[in-house]
Amino acid sequence: MKRLYFFILTIFIGCSSKTPVDMELVLYDRSGQYITGDNYSSLFFFNQKVYNGPAYNRYRSGEKREEGVLKNGFKSGPWTGWDKEGKKKYIGEYEKGKAHGKWTGYYPNGNKKYEGRYELGSQTAGWSYFNKEGKKNLEEDYYICTEDCKDNHPPDRRGVKYICKKLGRLKEQRKI
Length: 176
Hints:
Strand 4 and strand 5 form a beta hairpin. The chain starts with a helix and ends with a strand. Strands 1-4-5-6-7-8-9-10-11-12 form a 10-stranded mixed sheet. The chain has a two-stranded antiparallel sheet with strand order 2-3. It has a single domain, classed as Outer Surface Protein A, domain 3 (Alpha-Beta Complex), CATH 3.90.930. The protein has 176 residues and is mainly β. The chain contains 3 helices and 12 strands.
């Protein structure tokens, strides 16, 4: 009985690794969705194994480019990107493989470069841009889809959510 318990515990621990995988070496990109190499076929509809867990990308020179979590094969949650010198380039959130949530970019000197929000891959609300010294030099306002706007949307089709055509359009720009 102790051997069986030890064997099951070993299998469980081995299969629940939280070690990030290199997306270029271990996974295949299928239109923004990452699948494992297990039973990989050139006919994409035979590939049923999507990757869930931490992952990262590297530059060709070997430095880490970005790191985050894949959920159902798509980038999800917070991701961090670095330049080739290893300095933080951005911090942003993804949902189902598209930029969604707060994003902040940085200059190589560490000062903030931009700050804003994405919704389903499009810029929304207020964005602020900064110069290399960290002083705000530009503000932009992007269209936000309100409840009134959503009431005028056509219905979702086949489970695919309608994306507002106005989303991501620049409304106003102010230089400071």
